[in-house]
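Hello forum,

I keep getting stuck at the same step: I have a sequence, I want structure tokens, and every attempt I make locally crashes halfway through. Rather than fight my setup again tonight, could one of you with a working pipeline run this one for me? It's a single chain of 361 residues.
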Amino acid sequence: MPEKPKIFGTLNIEVVNTGLCMYCGTCIASCPVNVIGYSDEEKPVLKGICFLCELCYYSCPRIELPINEIEIKIFGRERTQEERALGIFKAAYAAKALDPEILKASQDGGVATTLLLQALEDKIVDYAIVTGVDEKKPWKPIPLIASKKEELLKAAGSKYSPGGSVGAVGDAWIGYPEGKFAYVGMPCQIDGIRRMQTSPKGNNKIGEKVKFTIGLFCFESYRYSKLFEEKIQKTHGINLNKVTKVDIKNNILKLYEGDKVVYEENVKNLKDFIVSGCNKCQDFTGELADISVGAVGAPEKWCAVLVRTELGEKIFKKACETGKLEAKPLDEAGLKIITKISEKKKQREAPYIKFVITEKI
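Reply #2:
Ran it on my machine without issues. Output:
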């Protein structure tokens, strides 16, 4: 008998219902008839009739993520044993934006926002898919499509819950079919972009519209409704509308109103609020991106930057040459901290990853 088609229902059974789903939004983006949508439950939902095309299933990075195959297509080679923890990268820097407006809006050094601005100015991309916040539900992440500095600034700063933002790649493709896109997101979301681009049965047509990717360092993500609405807002009486910044450093979650800390909690006490799919993720730095950015390992108010591809190197150097970024080599101590955290995350079980290091003699 012929094998049953791998439809959204199959994806729901194998990924969503098993706790593997990260709500990255890749299935939303890959659906050619736009019947997979976002939800307040932080999982994809079917909102129309499934056309049985199988693209959502084979684009999903949690069905299968063949690291070796993806690295050959993106970087031209597989990683070596020495690169196991952090993935392939050309150089490591500490960097920060020199634009006061970007620095004010950003989480730390404003590097991701600056790199997107440079890519837009150089016409490498026409639009950037970023993550903003819902005006009706403060600090709830939502995907945005930006094409100018003011729009990038609205999305600056970290969000610690999933928002299905890869789905906006599909929205951008519908709205701007001739456009070239940049994407910035967490490692699991970068996985979705790369899987969609390289899967033999994935929606390559939409995935290939993404020309530049920035991966954000991420150890884990939290359920918005459970942590922010129920625990922080309802239980502790914090008005999320007044919160100006959310930050996690040294394992402490802090919420600010201006310069004042109005809530803090050790992340060890937040295990019940972690997105279940995080427990199956081994990537801390966004190893499959063109450039990876995070605060860990960098001086205060700076970002650590791992430049991975020629395109990433080109955009980063141009931002430095045009006076948008200040950069210096990342010191050995900083790189060791990043490596240590990456190695810790590699200890998690990830059944969907297909990966073998094959050293060439």
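The chain has two domains: 8-221+274-354, 224-273. If your local run keeps crashing, start a new thread with the error log.
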